[in-house]
From TrEMBL, chains A, B:
<feature type="domain" description="MoaB/Mog">
    <location>
        <begin position="207"/>
        <end position="345"/>
    </location>
</feature>
<keyword id="KW-0500">Molybdenum</keyword>
<feature type="compositionally biased region" description="Low complexity">
    <location>
        <begin position="1"/>
        <end position="15"/>
    </location>
</feature>
<comment type="function">
    <text>Catalyzes the insertion of molybdate into adenylated molybdopterin with the concomitant release of AMP.</text>
</comment>
<comment type="similarity">
    <text>Belongs to the MoeA family.</text>
</comment>
<dbReference type="Pfam" id="PF03454">
    <property type="entry name" value="MoeA_C"/>
</dbReference>
<dbReference type="InterPro" id="IPR038987">
    <property type="entry name" value="MoeA-like"/>
</dbReference>
<keyword id="KW-0460">Magnesium</keyword>
<dbReference type="InterPro" id="IPR005111">
    <property type="entry name" value="MoeA_C_domain_IV"/>
</dbReference>
<dbReference type="Pfam" id="PF00994">
    <property type="entry name" value="MoCF_biosynth"/>
</dbReference>
<dbReference type="InterPro" id="IPR036425">
    <property type="entry name" value="MoaB/Mog-like_dom_sf"/>
</dbReference>
<dbReference type="Pfam" id="PF03453">
    <property type="entry name" value="MoeA_N"/>
</dbReference>
<feature type="region of interest" description="Disordered">
    <location>
        <begin position="1"/>
        <end position="24"/>
    </location>
</feature>
<dbReference type="InterPro" id="IPR001453">
    <property type="entry name" value="MoaB/Mog_dom"/>
</dbReference>
<comment type="pathway">
    <text>Cofactor biosynthesis; molybdopterin biosynthesis.</text>
</comment>
<dbReference type="InterPro" id="IPR036688">
    <property type="entry name" value="MoeA_C_domain_IV_sf"/>
</dbReference>
<keyword id="KW-0501">Molybdenum cofactor biosynthesis</keyword>
């Protein structure tokens, strides 16, 4: 756009020479692939099961025994042989002598043979010989001279109310796949099989800093021309939700030397580095300058997406660095699309990226762009249809709509407005 | 079902007299309402913003200043008066003297008057007098005798690239409502406005214990007739995910005195008590006996739902007690439907219950029941339609399917199987 007739000393031209305007965009998917190729899994640790919630299993787990591992009664009642009830009817009560009482957690004292029964509780171990449990409500009792008989006047099919060994799980069955995220259901399974510690990948320690002379600490009074460093705290929450351990390094002024020191220190001491700010085309594009200086290997410095096209990814000695836009909306999206999957990959997840669904666009979306837009949106279920409403203010620097979003609506490159009702892809935000 | 001709000494009849069979079921919604009437909010505490993730705001927050609080440049370029470009065209470059350079975070040194311009960065404060920012790419520079002029050959509309004061938020606007859950977006907003500590309700301390002589510790070797106490750890994960602080008190044998001591101790020391086991109709229904003994006020001891119909709720001295079924599936559902909302209400949430959506049933569901069934299921998006697949094994004691579920499919009382494709209500599980 700069005039070819302009002076040689034009600031714009000299920036052209720097390559600041000449960034080559790659697609969001290509950026994700480039990153994934450099992800190194975190080291392993063994954690107690009750502290493992949210982590990812580093090894598959198979069943060390069947479940149930004994024949389990599904009812309170009487364990006996079904054949003994062959003649039972409403006119004919069959009486069997009760020779045992088996509460939960006890083992039977007697094998059951024809003519005998054992009182048994729900969940207790069915005695050998018995092939049915008759529910308590179908029985009556008679006691004489210290001996007890149970009376039943119905036939009951063999096997009724007995859960066979291994019904749910056979010994050696795969219980949980490597990479499974550990939630309540996984804990239930692991605890059932006595797996009281689990191997997981460590939580990556993620250094966070912001760049910008305009930045105040969150606790500082507001001042003309200044804004508070909200991005660092927002990123910390996103990184914690992704499973990482956020380390807040604060904010630095727009000075290349400060940025170099901060970045090198962060790359040395932490597993992953995320910065916000200092990537836009301008006089103080310090993260850009740093990456271009060759001290780190640049993976990309432009992505064909809005917001956040000037996002930069780089690697040094196997550690990844993300320089996200300083605009809150762009910073948020960059973290969800790039940083979150990286953290999850480092932790061994098999489901790295935000889950993708389809929904109907809830209102017209008029912005057109040659890049893919990730528009913050809100999902509603209306008459069985999933509707995604784009936020009304969605400029990259509009921060107030982040909180009301539970999805990113993917607007592909288009030259036409999208009508309400159009089917769109949405990425579900998982921290809501 | 017991024969009217049975002996008076029948165990079943004597249990009838105890009221064990005569429980009056209330609906799940009625149970939730009864509980909600007894919930007492936790006490307040002030926490640092970066530690507030997942908590609920105890007070609404309004904006202490507008945002932006200064006229902000949306571009790198030059701030000037739009009227000065009235004659600009591709044939006529307008030259304005550059009298200031305003990086982000600095305040302008000069007011801009006709004939002058200031170099300005994206995000920097627009100087008084200027009413437009012309983007860098539309400009050229000329320097002579230490003075600098910027040349522009287009007209630009007034206001272009300047974000006015208060565009996003006016002073006094409601930023966040009391009860809002604090996620990344909320943190961004609060940090932007300098809210570095927030008032929240304390995390309730939730005592968890299991009852059952059959229970082994998770680390113990398996033994005939025994099972491991998986429910306590599963509940701990569910309670932590709901926002509570789980306190594991372990397992006790089926002895009324032990249960009484455990329950009374738990009610005295913690904010909420959740037990699993000891509620089914049987000889060892100790939690039922305890509640019937009058030491606590019973709210309900049967809910018209499957699994978990024998769930019991009670209150003592304003503290709530939930005695959930010992069956893993029933325990899981009871915690999601009753305990999770209670914890969130204690923490000041405005959205207590699992969010409800509609989906198509992914396969036929044949079980019929006079109670509402909460069937564990998995959501899939197929061709823009949300499909809910019921777990294949969904007996209340089948534990392996919990982990594969991300919703509960609500099957209303019905006497007919539900065909695949039927629209059903689903409750989204939020810990996945």
């Amino acid at each position: 756009m700069t005039s070819q007739q302009g002076s040689e000393s034009s600031a714009a031209s000299s920036q052209h020479d720097n390559g600041k305007f000449n960034r080559r965009p790659i697609t969001p998917a290509a950026a994700q692939q480039k990153i994934a190729a450099y992800v190194q899994p975190a080291t392993l640790e063994e954690v107690k099961l009750h502290e493992a919630g949210g982590r990812f299993l580093a090894q598959s787990v198979t069943a060390p025994h069947p479940y149930p591992h004994f024949r389990r009664s599904g009812m309170d009642g009487y364990a006996l042989q079904a054949a003994d009830l062959a003649q039972a009817s409403s006119d004919h009560i069959v009486w069997l002598e009760v020779i045992d009482n088996i509460p939960c957690g006890y083992t039977p004292s007697h094998e059951i043979t024809s003519g005998y029964a054992a009182r048994i509780m729900t969940g207790a171990m069915v005695p050998d010989g018995a092939d049915v449990v008759v529910m308590l409500e179908m029985t009556e009792l008679r006691t004489e001279h210290g001996r007890t008989w149970v009376g039943i006047k119905r036939q009951v099919e063999q096997g009724k109310n007995i859960t066979p060994i291994g019904l749910e799980v056979q010994e050696g069955d795969l219980l949980l796949q490597q990479g499974a995220q550990i939630g309540a259901g996984e804990i239930s399974v692991l605890a059932t099989f006595g797996v009281h510690t689990v191997p997981v990948y460590r939580k990556p320690r993620v250094a966070i800093f912001s760049t910008g002379t305009e930045l105040l600490g969150v606790e500082e009074p507001i001042a003309p021309g200044k804004i508070r460093n909200s991005n660092s705290l927002m990123l910390a929450q996103q990184i914690a939700a992704a499973g990482g351990e956020p380390i807040l390094l604060g904010a630095i002024e727009d000075k290349l030397e400060l940025a170099r020191t901060m970045m090198m220190n962060a790359l040395e001491h932490y597993d992953l580095v995320v910065s916000s700010g200092g990537v836009s085309v301008g006089d103080y594009d310090i993260m850009g300058d740093l990456v271009r200086s060759g001290e780190v290997e640049m993976l990309f410095n432009k992505i064909s997406m809005r917001p956040g096209s000037v996002t930069t990814g780089a690697v040094k000695d196997g550690k990844l660095l993300f320089a996200l836009s300083g605009n809150p909306g762009a910073c948020f999206v960059g973290c969800e699309l790039l940083v979150r999957p990286t953290i999850r990959q480092m932790m061994g997840s098999q489901h790295d990226y935000l889950p993708q669904w389809q929904a109907e666009l809830g209102r017209e979306y008029v912005k057109i762009n040659s890049f893919t837009r990730y528009v913050r949106g809100r999902l509603e279920m209306e008459n069985g249809r999933l509707i995604a409403y784009p936020a009304l203010l969605d400029e990259s620097n509009v921060m107030v709509t982040i909180k009301d979003s539970d999805c990113l609506i993917v607007i592909p490159p288009t030259s036409e407005p999208l009508a309400a009702g159009t089917i769109v892809q949405i990425l579900r935000l998982m921290d809501r």
